[in-house]
Amino acid sequence: MEDDQLLRYSRQLFLPQIDVQGQQRLLAARALIIGLGGLGSPAAMYLAAAGVGHLVLNDDDAVDLSNLQRQIIHRTEDLGRAKAVSAKHALERLNPDIQVTAACARLEQTELEQAVGEADVVLDCSDNFTTRFAINAASVKRGTPLITGAVIRFEGQMAVFTPAIEDSPCYNCLYLDRGEVMENCAQTGVIAPLPGIIGSMQALEAIKVILDIGKPLRQRLLLLDALTMEWHSVILRKNPKCPTCSGH
Predict the structure, then answer these.
(1) Scanning 46, 73, 80, 174, which has its CA 20 to 30 A from the CA of 36?
(2) In a domain, 248, yes or no
(3) Is 185 marked active-site?
(4) pLDDT at residue 54 above 60?
Protein backbone atom coordinates (compact mmCIF):
# COMPACT_ATOMS: atom_id res chain seq x y z
CA MET A 1 0.00 0.00 0.00
CA GLU A 2 1.07 3.60 -0.60
CA ASP A 3 1.65 6.13 2.17
CA ASP A 4 -1.72 7.86 1.76
CA GLN A 5 -3.49 4.48 1.97
CA LEU A 6 -1.59 3.61 5.14
CA LEU A 7 -2.82 6.87 6.65
CA ARG A 8 -6.40 6.56 5.35
CA TYR A 9 -6.84 3.07 6.78
CA SER A 10 -4.55 3.49 9.79
CA ARG A 11 -7.27 2.97 12.41
CA GLN A 12 -8.08 -0.41 10.86
CA LEU A 13 -4.43 -1.32 10.43
CA PHE A 14 -3.99 -0.99 14.20
CA LEU A 15 -6.44 -3.87 14.67
CA PRO A 16 -4.59 -7.20 14.94
CA GLN A 17 -7.51 -8.97 13.23
CA ILE A 18 -6.95 -6.80 10.13
CA ASP A 19 -3.40 -5.39 9.90
CA VAL A 20 -1.85 -4.76 6.48
CA GLN A 21 -2.73 -8.21 5.12
CA GLY A 22 -6.40 -7.83 6.01
CA GLN A 23 -6.57 -4.36 4.51
CA GLN A 24 -5.09 -5.69 1.28
CA ARG A 25 -7.79 -8.37 1.24
CA LEU A 26 -10.43 -5.66 1.59
CA LEU A 27 -8.87 -3.65 -1.22
CA ALA A 28 -8.96 -6.75 -3.43
CA ALA A 29 -12.58 -7.62 -2.54
CA ARG A 30 -15.72 -7.06 -4.57
CA ALA A 31 -19.11 -6.42 -2.93
CA LEU A 32 -22.48 -6.31 -4.69
CA ILE A 33 -25.03 -4.02 -3.03
CA ILE A 34 -28.60 -4.37 -4.29
CA GLY A 35 -30.75 -1.43 -3.25
CA LEU A 36 -29.31 2.03 -2.58
CA GLY A 37 -32.03 3.22 -0.23
CA GLY A 38 -32.16 3.38 3.55
CA LEU A 39 -30.09 0.22 4.11
CA GLY A 40 -27.83 0.42 1.07
CA SER A 41 -26.83 4.03 1.79
CA PRO A 42 -24.96 3.46 5.08
CA ALA A 43 -23.79 0.00 4.02
CA ALA A 44 -22.19 1.35 0.85
CA MET A 45 -20.66 4.35 2.62
CA TYR A 46 -19.01 2.27 5.32
CA LEU A 47 -17.72 -0.35 2.89
CA ALA A 48 -16.28 2.43 0.73
CA ALA A 49 -14.72 4.16 3.72
CA ALA A 50 -13.27 0.86 4.97
CA GLY A 51 -11.57 0.30 1.62
CA VAL A 52 -13.51 -2.53 -0.01
CA GLY A 53 -11.89 -2.23 -3.41
CA HIS A 54 -14.78 -2.68 -5.84
CA LEU A 55 -18.40 -1.86 -5.04
CA VAL A 56 -21.10 -2.78 -7.55
CA LEU A 57 -24.26 -0.75 -6.91
CA ASN A 58 -27.58 -1.94 -8.31
CA ASP A 59 -30.84 0.01 -8.11
CA ASP A 60 -33.39 0.76 -10.82
CA ASP A 61 -35.05 3.61 -8.91
CA ALA A 62 -34.48 7.39 -8.92
CA VAL A 63 -33.99 9.71 -5.96
CA ASP A 64 -37.25 11.14 -4.61
CA LEU A 65 -37.73 13.88 -2.03
CA SER A 66 -39.31 11.40 0.42
CA ASN A 67 -36.10 9.32 0.30
CA LEU A 68 -33.92 12.01 1.85
CA GLN A 69 -35.30 11.48 5.38
CA ARG A 70 -33.23 8.29 5.70
CA GLN A 71 -31.26 7.56 2.51
CA ILE A 72 -28.20 9.52 3.58
CA ILE A 73 -26.01 8.82 0.55
CA HIS A 74 -28.23 11.09 -1.59
CA ARG A 75 -28.56 14.89 -1.48
CA THR A 76 -31.27 17.37 -2.46
CA GLU A 77 -29.39 18.15 -5.67
CA ASP A 78 -29.65 14.44 -6.60
CA LEU A 79 -33.46 14.53 -6.92
CA GLY A 80 -34.50 12.73 -10.10
CA ARG A 81 -31.07 11.14 -10.59
CA ALA A 82 -30.72 7.37 -10.71
CA LYS A 83 -29.92 6.14 -7.20
CA ALA A 84 -27.03 3.97 -8.37
CA VAL A 85 -25.44 6.95 -10.14
CA SER A 86 -26.07 9.30 -7.21
CA ALA A 87 -24.51 6.78 -4.83
CA LYS A 88 -21.53 6.19 -7.14
CA HIS A 89 -20.71 9.90 -7.18
CA ALA A 90 -21.00 10.13 -3.39
CA LEU A 91 -18.72 7.13 -2.83
CA GLU A 92 -16.11 8.37 -5.29
CA ARG A 93 -15.95 11.63 -3.36
CA LEU A 94 -15.70 9.71 -0.09
CA ASN A 95 -12.90 7.39 -1.24
CA PRO A 96 -11.25 7.84 -4.66
CA ASP A 97 -9.12 4.76 -3.86
CA ILE A 98 -11.87 2.33 -4.77
CA GLN A 99 -13.70 1.34 -7.94
CA VAL A 100 -17.45 1.88 -8.05
CA THR A 101 -19.74 0.45 -10.72
CA ALA A 102 -23.33 1.68 -11.08
CA ALA A 103 -25.94 -0.69 -12.52
CA CYS A 104 -29.23 1.15 -13.02
CA ALA A 105 -31.29 -1.65 -14.56
CA ARG A 106 -32.90 -4.39 -12.49
CA LEU A 107 -30.73 -7.50 -12.56
CA GLU A 108 -32.71 -10.49 -13.79
CA GLN A 109 -31.89 -14.22 -13.74
CA THR A 110 -28.67 -14.72 -15.74
CA GLU A 111 -27.39 -11.19 -15.12
CA LEU A 112 -28.19 -11.46 -11.42
CA GLU A 113 -26.49 -14.86 -11.13
CA GLN A 114 -23.41 -13.53 -12.91
CA ALA A 115 -23.19 -10.42 -10.69
CA VAL A 116 -23.65 -12.53 -7.55
CA GLY A 117 -21.06 -15.06 -8.73
CA GLU A 118 -18.48 -12.34 -9.39
CA ALA A 119 -18.86 -10.87 -5.88
CA ASP A 120 -17.11 -11.95 -2.69
CA VAL A 121 -20.19 -10.92 -0.72
CA VAL A 122 -23.70 -9.70 -1.55
CA LEU A 123 -25.71 -7.22 0.50
CA ASP A 124 -29.48 -7.47 0.06
CA CYS A 125 -30.74 -3.97 0.83
CA SER A 126 -33.91 -4.31 -1.25
CA ASP A 127 -37.48 -3.74 -0.12
CA ASN A 128 -39.58 -6.49 -1.72
CA PHE A 129 -39.90 -10.25 -1.48
CA THR A 130 -39.56 -10.86 -5.22
CA THR A 131 -36.10 -9.32 -5.30
CA ARG A 132 -35.06 -10.94 -2.02
CA PHE A 133 -35.99 -14.45 -3.17
CA ALA A 134 -34.23 -13.90 -6.51
CA ILE A 135 -31.05 -12.70 -4.77
CA ASN A 136 -31.20 -15.64 -2.37
CA ALA A 137 -31.60 -18.16 -5.20
CA ALA A 138 -28.59 -16.68 -7.01
CA SER A 139 -26.58 -16.70 -3.78
CA VAL A 140 -27.34 -20.37 -3.17
CA LYS A 141 -26.59 -21.32 -6.78
CA ARG A 142 -23.26 -19.48 -6.85
CA GLY A 143 -22.26 -20.12 -3.22
CA THR A 144 -21.80 -16.42 -2.45
CA PRO A 145 -22.33 -15.18 1.14
CA LEU A 146 -25.46 -13.04 1.52
CA ILE A 147 -26.00 -10.30 4.11
CA THR A 148 -29.67 -9.41 4.32
CA GLY A 149 -31.38 -6.63 6.27
CA ALA A 150 -34.87 -5.19 6.60
CA VAL A 151 -36.55 -2.32 8.45
CA ILE A 152 -40.11 -1.14 8.98
CA ARG A 153 -41.62 1.34 11.44
CA PHE A 154 -39.41 0.91 14.57
CA GLU A 155 -38.37 -2.69 13.80
CA GLY A 156 -35.24 -4.01 12.16
CA GLN A 157 -33.74 -7.39 11.39
CA MET A 158 -30.70 -8.89 9.71
CA ALA A 159 -29.05 -12.24 9.01
CA VAL A 160 -26.04 -13.71 7.24
CA PHE A 161 -26.46 -16.68 4.90
CA THR A 162 -23.39 -18.66 3.81
CA PRO A 163 -24.51 -21.29 1.28
CA ALA A 164 -21.00 -22.68 0.80
CA ILE A 165 -21.01 -23.90 4.40
CA GLU A 166 -22.71 -27.24 5.04
CA ASP A 167 -26.08 -27.09 6.85
CA SER A 168 -26.30 -23.33 6.41
CA PRO A 169 -29.91 -22.14 5.98
CA CYS A 170 -30.92 -19.70 3.27
CA TYR A 171 -33.44 -16.84 3.14
CA ASN A 172 -36.07 -19.23 1.78
CA CYS A 173 -35.64 -21.42 4.88
CA LEU A 174 -36.70 -18.39 6.92
CA TYR A 175 -39.50 -17.10 4.69
CA LEU A 176 -41.67 -19.15 2.35
CA ASP A 177 -42.24 -17.76 -1.12
CA ARG A 178 -46.02 -17.50 -1.25
CA GLY A 179 -46.14 -14.44 -3.47
CA GLU A 180 -47.12 -12.12 -0.61
CA VAL A 181 -46.62 -8.38 -0.91
CA MET A 182 -44.04 -7.16 1.59
CA GLU A 183 -44.89 -4.12 3.69
CA ASN A 184 -42.57 -1.25 2.86
CA CYS A 185 -41.67 2.15 4.25
CA ALA A 186 -43.84 3.96 1.70
CA GLN A 187 -46.90 2.22 3.16
CA THR A 188 -46.20 2.10 6.88
CA GLY A 189 -43.26 4.45 7.53
CA VAL A 190 -39.90 4.08 9.23
CA ILE A 191 -37.96 6.14 11.77
CA ALA A 192 -34.97 7.85 10.14
CA PRO A 193 -31.96 6.40 12.05
CA LEU A 194 -33.15 2.77 11.99
CA PRO A 195 -31.97 1.92 8.45
CA GLY A 196 -28.64 3.46 9.43
CA ILE A 197 -28.29 1.03 12.33
CA ILE A 198 -29.14 -2.09 10.32
CA GLY A 199 -27.30 -0.97 7.16
CA SER A 200 -24.14 -0.23 9.15
CA MET A 201 -24.35 -3.69 10.71
CA GLN A 202 -24.68 -5.22 7.25
CA ALA A 203 -21.42 -3.49 6.29
CA LEU A 204 -19.74 -4.78 9.45
CA GLU A 205 -20.86 -8.35 8.79
CA ALA A 206 -19.72 -8.07 5.17
CA ILE A 207 -16.22 -7.04 6.31
CA LYS A 208 -16.12 -9.94 8.78
CA VAL A 209 -17.12 -12.36 6.03
CA ILE A 210 -14.53 -10.98 3.57
CA LEU A 211 -11.76 -11.23 6.17
CA ASP A 212 -13.07 -14.41 7.82
CA ILE A 213 -12.73 -12.88 11.28
CA GLY A 214 -14.82 -12.99 14.43
CA LYS A 215 -18.15 -14.75 14.51
CA PRO A 216 -20.42 -13.62 11.66
CA LEU A 217 -24.18 -13.70 12.20
CA ARG A 218 -24.53 -17.14 10.62
CA GLN A 219 -27.55 -19.32 11.46
CA ARG A 220 -29.08 -16.50 13.50
CA LEU A 221 -31.71 -13.85 12.88
CA LEU A 222 -31.07 -10.64 14.80
CA LEU A 223 -34.17 -8.59 15.64
CA LEU A 224 -34.30 -5.01 16.96
CA ASP A 225 -37.22 -3.26 18.63
CA ALA A 226 -36.04 0.35 18.45
CA LEU A 227 -38.81 1.67 20.70
CA THR A 228 -37.51 -0.35 23.64
CA MET A 229 -33.98 -0.78 22.25
CA GLU A 230 -34.20 -4.52 22.85
CA TRP A 231 -32.30 -7.00 20.71
CA HIS A 232 -33.38 -10.60 20.19
CA SER A 233 -31.45 -13.40 18.51
CA VAL A 234 -33.29 -16.34 16.93
CA ILE A 235 -31.49 -19.55 15.92
CA LEU A 236 -32.05 -20.45 12.26
CA ARG A 237 -31.99 -24.03 11.02
CA LYS A 238 -31.77 -25.34 7.50
CA ASN A 239 -35.16 -26.44 6.20
CA PRO A 240 -34.69 -29.97 4.80
CA LYS A 241 -37.58 -29.30 2.41
CA CYS A 242 -36.50 -25.81 1.34
CA PRO A 243 -37.24 -25.44 -2.39
CA THR A 244 -34.11 -23.32 -2.87
CA CYS A 245 -31.28 -24.95 -0.94
CA SER A 246 -32.39 -28.51 -0.12
CA GLY A 247 -32.68 -29.91 -3.63
CA HIS A 248 -36.38 -30.74 -3.10
Answers:
(1) 174
(2) no
(3) yes
(4) yes
Give the sheet arrangement for strand 54-58, strand by strand: 99-103, 54-58, 30-34, 121-124, 146-152, 155-161, 220-225, 230-235
Query: What's the CA gap between 108 and 78, in Å, rounded?
Result: 26
The residue segments making up the domain with residue 134 are: 3-235
- The sign one gets for the Cα dihedral 198, 109, 145, 203 is negative
pLDDT per position as a tens digit, 100-128: 999 999 999 899 999 999 999 999 999 89
Shortest CA distance to 44 belongs to which of 1, 4, 92? Answer: 92
Q: Is residue 78 assigned to a domain?
A: yes
Judged by DSSP in three states, 15 sits in: coil
Catalytic one of 173, 185, 242, 245: 185
Average pLDDT, the chain: 94
pLDDT band for position 180 (cuts 50, 70, 90): low
Helical ranges in the chain per DSSP H:
3-8, 10-13, 19-27, 40-50, 83-94, 109-118, 129-142, 171-174, 185-188, 193-211
Q: What angle do CA 76, 82, 83 make, to 5 degrees?
A: 70
For residue 29, is it within any domain?
Answer: yes
- Domain assignment present for residue 242? The answer is no
Cα(68)–Cα(79) distance, integer angstroms = 9
pLDDT of residue 179: 60
**Which CATH number goes with the domain that contains 166?**
3.40.50.720
Mean of the pLDDT values across residues 211-233?
Answer: 95
| Number of separate domains in the chain | 1
